[in-house]
């Protein structure tokens, strides 16, 4: 059977009847001032936030005064100017005596204390940029432009993307373009690794087919430049389009506008009608 190819992280993998896909990976690559953050426990996504081992992040950001209090489950780091304190399970972060509420608390993962990358980095005066294509978080402190490793290069954001100066994997690029019609046939996958084929007809009608059960659901859609309004099965939201190219393959990321970090965000790739018809009962 002819296979459909789509991406996951830095490679194009087979989509139909394959073991791998381009769904959101569980782990994240973290770059701090141009250097890969090396840890014995990898950065992971929890509650749509990147969690990293506290000691590795503190040291990478110059907060070398590090303390851990076992009875109170409190971790503290200081760079001599800013001191922050976090407590396992608490949504509050103490920054020089001021309390800020986070949306994800520190937690224990694989016997390691993991802290939210963005909240802690920002509290220590760093900025965090996110690349959704390669699942790479780039942290920069002190206005230093990162010396990005050889397999990652910087690109300028298009006007249609909400990502500010993202990094990218070697061949994956978010591409600025004047979006045309979106009608046609697509292979798609959501963040939960559910796989479908989707027909967006010229009449505003949408058909979604689960590739495993081949069950189909009818719905509707409308599209204006970079915004898709889709109402079919679990995809019932408006989505902002970001185009990506990888090894000359054209991919489309549809970000759920009601929940940009999770929700029903999905990736899709155009396919032929013949490929689509293989899943029509």
TrEMBL record:
<dbReference type="InterPro" id="IPR012854">
    <property type="entry name" value="Cu_amine_oxidase-like_N"/>
</dbReference>
<feature type="domain" description="Copper amine oxidase-like N-terminal">
    <location>
        <begin position="32"/>
        <end position="132"/>
    </location>
</feature>
<protein>
    <recommendedName>
        <fullName>Copper amine oxidase-like N-terminal domain-containing protein</fullName>
    </recommendedName>
</protein>
<keyword id="KW-0732">Signal</keyword>
<feature type="signal peptide">
    <location>
        <begin position="1"/>
        <end position="23"/>
    </location>
</feature>
<dbReference type="InterPro" id="IPR036582">
    <property type="entry name" value="Mao_N_sf"/>
</dbReference>
<dbReference type="Pfam" id="PF07833">
    <property type="entry name" value="Cu_amine_oxidN1"/>
</dbReference>
């Amino acid at each position: 059977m002819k296979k459909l190819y789509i991406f996951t992280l830095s490679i194009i993998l087979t989509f139909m009847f394959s073991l791998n896909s381009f769904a959101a990976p569980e782990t994240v690559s973290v770059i701090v001032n141009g250097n890969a953050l090396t840890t014995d426990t990898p950065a992971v996504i929890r509650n749509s936030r990147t969690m990293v081992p506290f000691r590795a992040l503190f040291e990478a950001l110059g907060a070398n005064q590090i303390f851990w209090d076992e009875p109170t489950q409190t971790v503290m780091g200081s760079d001599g100017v800013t001191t922050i304190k976090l407590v396992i399970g608490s949504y509050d972060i103490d920054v020089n005596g001021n309390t800020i509420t986070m949306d994800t608390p520190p937690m224990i993962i694989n016997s390691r204390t993991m802290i939210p990358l963005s909240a802690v980095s920002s509290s220590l005066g760093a900025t965090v940029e996110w690349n959704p294509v390669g699942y790479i978080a780039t942290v920069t402190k002190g206005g230093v432009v990162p010396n990005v490793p050889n397999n990652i290069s910087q690109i300028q954001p298009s006007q249609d993307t909400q990502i500010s100066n993202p990094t990218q994997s070697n061949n994956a690029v978010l591409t600025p373009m004047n979006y045309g019609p979106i009608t046609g046939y697509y292979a798609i996958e959501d963040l939960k690794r559910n796989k479908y084929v989707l027909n967006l007809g010229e009449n505003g009608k949408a058909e979604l087919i689960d590739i495993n059960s081949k069950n189909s659901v009818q719905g509707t859609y409308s599209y204006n430049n970079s915004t898709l309004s889709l109402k079919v099965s679990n995809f019932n939201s408006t989505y902002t389009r970001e185009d990506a190219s990888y090894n000359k393959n054209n991919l489309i990321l549809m970000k759920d506008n009601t929940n940009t970090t999770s929700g029903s965000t999905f990736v899709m790739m155009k396919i032929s009608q013949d490929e689509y018809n293989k899943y029509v009962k």
